[in-house]
Design a protein that fits this description.
Strand content: 5-15%
Distance between the termini: 20 Å
Helix content: 25-40%
Number of helices: 7
Order of helices and strands: HEEEEEEHHHHHH
Largest sheet: 2 strands, antiparallel
Shape: globular
Structural class: mainly alpha
Strand order of the largest sheet: 1-2
């Protein structure tokens, strides 16, 4: 697949041409090409490849034809080319997990060009929806376009319909408003419960922060759950700093940790 697009087989199905290299062994054990290999050079597709602009990802699986249907193995790990080109202006400490985010398909188009920038409510809703769809393999259903008067963003409407994000009242979502650490904790806590309904959402044994009194009461349990599971950490001096703005890279890293914990 290219970038955060779908895998080719999801777009055109499991059949050649254009989505994979098909080869295998016949029953005698002699290697045989069972489909004509797809050749991107002959297809002219190499003319469109730009490693600096996109990420190209590849994975492998085996299939067996028993005469009635195919039996597929799990997919291999993903090999990625051009990973560094898919996000810009990131902190050095964040790159390891951001590379994982690229592999998982969690970095959205709206945020990739400046990972240090504060993340807006709209951008976070897109990230949360992406986390749900990547984890479950399902397309989320959107709420009606009339739900909010200040946005018709499909990803926002999906996140709202899933119960991950809320409006601010008066039929508004306030898409361009920035988010802070306690809000991010709350929204990703909801996402964790939605993508993995059997997850242990208890807060027993969660750390206590020196500035816990500054966390809004309705966010305390969310913060404690996220901290207990290592999804979000303090900022030094045993503080959480709940009102600090959350950056795009911080939000993505938390989403990566949630994904990896439950995948």
């Amino acid at each position: 697949k290219v970038g955060n697009g779908k895998w080719n087989y999801e777009v055109i199905g499991n059949t050649i041409p254009g989505n994979s290299l098909h080869s295998g062994y016949d029953e005698s054990g002699i290697f045989a090409v069972i489909e004509a290999p797809y050749d991107p050079i002959n297809a002219g597709e190499l003319d469109t490849i730009d490693i600096k602009a996109d990420v190209y990802q590849f994975r492998v699986r085996y299939n067996y034809d028993d005469g009635d249907h195919y039996i597929y193995s799990p997919f291999s790990d993903v090999v990625s080319i051009g990973m560094k080109a898919y996000y810009e202006n990131a902190s050095n400490w964040a790159t390891v997990e951001l590379d994982k985010a690229v592999e998982y398909g969690l970095i959205t188009e709206a945020i990739k060009n400046d990972m240090k920038a504060p993340i807006t409510r709209e951008e976070f809703a897109e990230l949360a929806t992406r986390l749900y769809e990547v984890y479950t393999g399902k397309k989320a259903e959107a709420a009606p376009v009339s739900t909010f008067t200040d946005t018709t963003n499909l990803e926002v409407l999906k996140a709202f319909n899933l119960g991950i994000v809320n409006g601010i009242g008066n039929d508004k979502f306030d898409p361009k408003a920035l988010t802070n650490r306690e809000q991010i904790a709350a929204m990703l806590n909801r996402a964790a419960g939605i993508i993995n309904p059997t997850a242990d959402l208890s807060i027993e044994g969660a750390p206590t922060f020196a500035d816990e009194s500054e966390i809004a009461l309705y966010f305390v349990n969310n913060v404690k759950f996220m901290a207990k599971n290592g999804f979000i950490t303090g900022v030094g001096g045993n503080r959480f700093d709940p009102k600090a703005q959350s950056t795009r890279e911080q939000a993505v890293l938390i989403a990566v940790r949630v994904y990896e914990a439950y995948k």
